[in-house]
């Protein structure tokens, strides 16, 4: 499942996205949810997919640290 979010500036704007309000910061976001790649995968590939997901998370975490200075909790 893939979920995409983007900030929404104008409340009256028509969009094909659904909206959600984050009360703690009073921010409005548009979102869409998708199911992708639903084909059956061989069980022997699950370890590869898991390791690939971990690499993606580490890369994203390092990028966030470099751009925003957030601590890297993956290492």
UniProtKB/TrEMBL annotation:
Keywords: ATP-binding, Kinase, Nucleotide-binding, Transferase
Catalytic activity: 1D-myo-inositol 1,3,4,5,6-pentakisphosphate + ATP = 1D-myo-inositol hexakisphosphate + ADP + H(+)
Example GO molecular function: inositol-1,3,4,5,6-pentakisphosphate 2-kinase activity
InterPro entries: Ins_P5_2-kin
Coiled coil: none
Keyword field contains Nucleotide-binding: yes
Residues spanning the membrane: none
Gene Ontology BP annotations: inositol phosphate biosynthetic process
EC code(s) of this entry: 2.7.1.158
Gene Ontology CC terms: nucleus
Entry function: Phosphorylates Ins(1,3,4,5,6)P5 at position 2 to form Ins(1,2,3,4,5,6)P6 (InsP6 or phytate).
Record-linked PANTHER family: INOSITOL POLYPHOSPHATE KINASE 1 (PTHR14456), INOSITOL-PENTAKISPHOSPHATE 2-KINASE (PTHR14456:SF2)
Record's comment describing the protein's domains: The EXKPK motif is conserved in inositol-pentakisphosphate 2-kinases of both family 1 and 2.
Protein name: Inositol-pentakisphosphate 2-kinase
Source organism (scientific name): Papaver somniferum (Opium poppy)
Lineage: Eukaryota, Viridiplantae, Streptophyta, Embryophyta, Tracheophyta
């Amino acid at each position: 499942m893939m979920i995409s979010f983007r900030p929404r500036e104008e409340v009256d704007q028509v969009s094909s996205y659904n909206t959600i309000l984050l009360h703690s910061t009073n921010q409005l976001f548009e979102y869409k949810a998708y199911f992708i790649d639903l084909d059956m995968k061989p069980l022997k590939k699950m370890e590869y997919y898991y390791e690939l997901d971990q690499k993606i998370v580490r890369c994203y975490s390092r990028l966030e640290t470099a751009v925003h200075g957030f601590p890297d909790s993956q290492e």
